[in-house]
From TrEMBL:
Gene: fthC
Name of the top EC class for this enzyme: ligase
Stated family: Belongs to the 5-formyltetrahydrofolate cyclo-ligase family.
Cofactor: Mg(2+)
Designated name of the protein: 5-formyltetrahydrofolate cyclo-ligase
EC number: 6.3.3.2
Organism this protein belongs to: Latilactobacillus curvatus
Any one Pfam family match given in the protein's UniProt record, by short name: 5-FTHF_cyc-lig
InterPro entries: FTHF_cligase, FTHF_cligase-like_sf, NagB/RpiA_transferase-like
Amino acid sequence: MRTKKQIRQQQIAALQTLAQTPALKHAQEAQLLELLMATEVFQKATIIGVTLSQPIEMATQPIIDAIRLAGKEVVVPKTLPERQMAFYPLTATTELTTGSYGALEPVVTAGSQVLIPDLMIVPGLAFSPEGWRVGFGGGYYDRYLAKYPMPTVALALKPQQRSADWAIDEFDIQLDQVLQV
Ligand SMILES: Nc1nc2c(c(=O)[nH]1)N(C=O)[C@@H](CNc1ccc(C(=O)N[C@@H](CCC(=O)O)C(=O)O)cc1)CN2
Ligand SMILES: Nc1ncnc2c1ncn2[C@@H]1O[C@H](COP(=O)(O)OP(=O)(O)OP(=O)(O)O)[C@@H](O)[C@H]1O
């Protein structure tokens, strides 16, 4: 058994290594996007929650493009006090700013409208085949999904695929599907 903290360190190192070989990372991302688009949950969803990725993470811009091309709405998270999140539409006019943790977030203006997705693409550092997950440690997704239950899917690059060798906490939310290449 490992602690989630040990796993975060190992997974970040493994993802940094993959990011040094962009061709390999892109190939895995393209395959994962194909798997996502083939899922029933993707085809049925109308509002899809997705992050704005950081360099070591699965690149989300191709996913965002595919969601739009399919005529669906893209919503992205803004972090709030007390480790809460709200999701806002990502459109051509959405302004973005770098959040405290380094990823981009939408700038909220008078016209901004909070939307609750009907499919969540959940980010993370490690995913087990059964849907257990270790993220960056904020607990944002466990809190959000406890409050707003919805279909969930994760896209696991090779270094993110890991058998659950950590203790599952009672607040951990099990993902419905982990897509793997
Ligand atoms: N691209 C991207 N955006 C995302 C996420 C993500 O995983 N990827 N998130 C996924 O959740 C949310 C932000 N997640 C965060 C996770 C941790 C910390 C943070 O401050 N971590 C502390 C350590 C945590 C602790 O031990 O308490 C730190 O870095 O000091 C901040 C934001 C929303 N946006
Ligand atoms: N539903 C919840 N209500 C209150 N606190 C929660 C809830 N879920 C998680 N937490 C708190 O969040 C903290 C971080 O949880 P965890 O280590 O599982 O984060 P993570 O899933 O890796 O992070 P993230 O979701 O941000 O990627 C835990 O210490 C836990 O106390």
